[in-house]
């Protein structure tokens, strides 16, 4: 898979985990589009990175209507 096929390859270099965590903390609950706009990345990149953070149990999501919303997991 090339970097162009993998939105996370470039995302890890440009946007740190804390960029996404801080955004969710500020906007919670936040849609993927809101996170992407606040961080300054594409929606696709935000979705990819947020799912990685979810796999690490740092954030979680749920459906609200047609939107996936993100929130911080309890530490």
TrEMBL record:
Superkingdom, taxonomy of origin: Archaea
The name this protein carries in UniProt is Helix-turn-helix transcriptional regulator
Question: Which organism was this protein described from?
Answer: Halorubrum glutamatedens
């Amino acid at each position: 898979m090339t970097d162009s096929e993998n939105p996370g390859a470039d995302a890890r270099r440009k946007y740190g985990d804390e960029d996404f965590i801080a955004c969710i903390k500020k906007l919670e609950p936040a849609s993927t589009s809101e996170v992407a706009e606040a961080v300054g990345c594409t929606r696709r990149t935000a979705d990819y990175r947020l799912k990685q953070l979810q796999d690490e149990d740092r954030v979680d999501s749920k459906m609200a209507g047609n939107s996936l919303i993100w929130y911080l997991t309890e530490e």
